[in-house]
């Protein structure tokens, strides 16, 4: 009987250790920003006071997307000290698409596929220190993806 009790204790401890990373990820999940239904609510959830337009942010996305279910977007920031890149789509049901965080020394560039409900602006907001910079590109969509 002592062996069964010991095994049960070890299995319980192992399960608890496996769940710890999930709880850590939940702690950094910004629920308010990702569940916002307007762009202004999403920006408020990200705690962005103001954005400055910047030519140092490159957005590579198609001018016209046949299917809004799969739109490839590539973002590169040439702003020194880039810490985060957020991608928002104005007319989506939930505008905040992604918020990528970068550690020091990482190249601030991402390539992802997004869904777009309709023709809309794709806005990128870059955080560098205490400043926020933005760039916008309009993408026309013929078939809704949301």
Helix count?
3
CATH architecture: Sandwich
Question: What overall form do the CA principal axes indicate?
Answer: extended
Succession of helices and strands: HHHEEEEEEEEE
Mean pLDDT across every amino acid position = 88
By CATH reckoning, the class would read Mainly Beta
Distance between the termini: 56 Å
**What portion of residues belong to β-strands?**
35-45%
Number of domains: 1
Instruction: Determine the CATH topology.
Output: Immunoglobulin-like
* Rg on CA atoms, Å: 20 Å
CATH superfamily descriptor: SoxY domain
The main β sheet shows up as: 6 strands, mixed
> From the structure provided, what is the oligomeric state, counting identical versus distinct chains?
single chain
Low-confidence stretches: none
In brief:
With 146 residues, this protein is α+β, with helices and mostly antiparallel strands.
